[in-house]
Design a protein that fits this description.
CATH superfamily: Ribosomal protein L30/S12
Structural class: alpha+beta
CATH class: Alpha Beta
InterPro entries: Ribosomal_eL30-like_sf, Ribosomal_eL8/eL30/eS12/Gad45
CATH topology: 60s Ribosomal Protein L30, Chain: A
Largest sheet: 4 strands, mixed
Keywords: Ribonucleoprotein, Ribosomal protein
CATH architecture: 2-Layer Sandwich
Pfam families: Ribosomal_L7Ae
Radius of gyration: 11 Å
Number of strands: 4
Strand order of the largest sheet: 1-4-2-3
Protein name: Large subunit ribosomal protein L7A
Number of helices: 3
Length: 81
């Protein structure tokens, strides 16, 4: 499933994902790196829950970044509809 991230329309990073969710963009699901800081994970989970968006846990930031096609780790990625 993560392999699909390379070809999906997406936003990467806490600021961008937060903006997408709060401004009403059509978000299909949110991928969260399990090794991110707890307060960030909690904030993103809560926001996704409020917006009724599925949250998909990912093993690490490095792995999430790799599947997004970027050379650095990613804490959160939102796949857009």
């Amino acid at each position: 499933m993560l392999e699909l991230l390379q070809h999906e329309k997406k936003v990467v990073g806490i600021k961008q994902v937060t903006r997408s969710l709060t401004e009403g963009q059509d978000v299909k699901c949110v991928y969260l790196a399990s090794d991110a800081e707890t307060h960030l994970l909690d904030k993103m989970r809560q926001l996704a829950l409020e917006k009724q968006v599925e949250v998909v846990p990912v093993e690490s930031r490095k792995k999430l970044g790799k599947f997004c096609g970027i050379d650095v780790g990613a804490t959160v990625v939102a796949v857009l509809k």
